[in-house]
């Protein structure tokens, strides 16, 4: 059975690197944020099938650095559930906005985030060239730029 509420990964548990590598191609890139992030996981039985890593940028802003669902469990609503949970937790912690970045060619991801209320606000040109040691290809297209999306978590007072 799939757990409905994501839980925090315990300190003594193994980091689900296999899942994280679905979201971020390079271990070196993952290592830059993962140990400073809150790691939320979702389980099916005793298997972790979803992960979401949330990093504090500053007192106002949290960033989802990685979100991934085991391929066998995708398109069943788990990604949306983890997105909503990350949003709720960030709001509870007092952040004003939650941001997320994804390759400009990642149409599925962009559409999931937009449906969840995230809005595009910036394109980081050549991000995947400058911050990764190797060229990354998706569907034979080289990743270059990253689009940033944000969701406001509270109304301005
Ligand atoms: N194009 C557009 N939308 C698509 C799509 C496609 N090719 N395939 C599925 N969708 C839609 C579904 O219809 C659904 O929306 P709906 O509920 O409004 O119909 C939504 O995308 C899927 O939602 P959900 O089932 O909650 O997503 P998921 O559990 O598959 O998780 C990801 C989404 C992105 C986390 C998952 O696909 C994943 O792990 N991908 C690989 C890692 C990755 O790219 N992570 C993000 C890095 S920024």
Number of strands: 9
Beginning-to-end CA distance, first to last residue: 42 Å
Widest sheet: strand ordering = 1-2-3-4-5-9-6
Bound ions, cofactors and other small molecules, one mention each: coenzyme A
User: Which superfamily, in CATH terms, is the homologous superfamily?
Assistant: Gcn5-related N-acetyltransferase (GNAT)
What are the segments in which pLDDT stays under 50 over at least 5 consecutive residues? none
Q: How many distinct folded domains?
A: 1
**What is the CATH level 1 assignment?**
Alpha Beta
Global geometry: globular
Order of helices and strands: EHHEEEHEHEHEEE
Second CATH tier, the architecture: 3-Layer(aba) Sandwich
Characterise the protein shown here.
The chain has five helices and nine strands; from the N terminus they run βααβββαβαβαβββ. It has 157 residues and is an alpha+beta fold. It has one domain (7-152): Gcn5-related N-acetyltransferase (GNAT) (Aminopeptidase, 3-Layer(aba) Sandwich), CATH 3.40.630. The protein has a seven-stranded mixed β-sheet with strand order 1-2-3-4-5-9-6, sandwiched between helices. Bound molecules: coenzyme A (COA). Residues 22-23, 67-69, 74-80, 102, 107-109, 111-112, 115 line the site of coenzyme A (COA).
Quick recap:
The chain is of the alpha+beta class and 157 residues long. Helices cover 25% and strands 34% of the residues.
Considering the chains and any ligands shown, give keywords for the structure.
two-stranded antiparallel sheet, 9 strands, 25% helix, 34% strand
Please write out the topology:
Elements lengths: L6 E2 L8 H7 L3 H5 L5 E8 L2 E10 L4 E9 L8 H15 L4 E7 L3 H9 L3 E6 L2 H4 L6 E2 L2 E2 L3 E7 L5
Parallel strand pairs: 4-5
Antiparallel strand pairs: 1-2, 2-3, 3-4, 5-9, 6-9, 7-8
The protein binds coenzyme A.
């Amino acid at each position: 059975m799939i757990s409905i509420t994501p839980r925090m990964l315990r300190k003594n548990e193994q980091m689900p690197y296999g899942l994280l590598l679905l979201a971020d191609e390079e271990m070196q890139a993952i290592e830059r944020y993962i140990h400073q992030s809150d790691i939320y996981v979702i389980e099916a039985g005793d298997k972790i099938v979803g992960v979401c890593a949330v990093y504090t940028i500053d007192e106002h802003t949290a960033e989802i650095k990685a979100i991934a669902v085991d391929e066998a469990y995708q398109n069943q609503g788990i990604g949306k559930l983890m997105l909503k949970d990350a949003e709720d937790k960030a709001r509870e912690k007092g952040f004003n906005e939650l941001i997320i970045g994804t390759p400009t060619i990642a149409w599925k991801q962009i559409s999931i985030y937009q449906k969840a209320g995230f809005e595009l606000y910036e394109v980081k040109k050549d991000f995947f060239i400058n911050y990764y040691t190797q060229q990354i290809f998706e569907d034979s297209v080289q990743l270059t730029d990253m689009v940033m999306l944000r969701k406001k978590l509270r109304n301005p007072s």
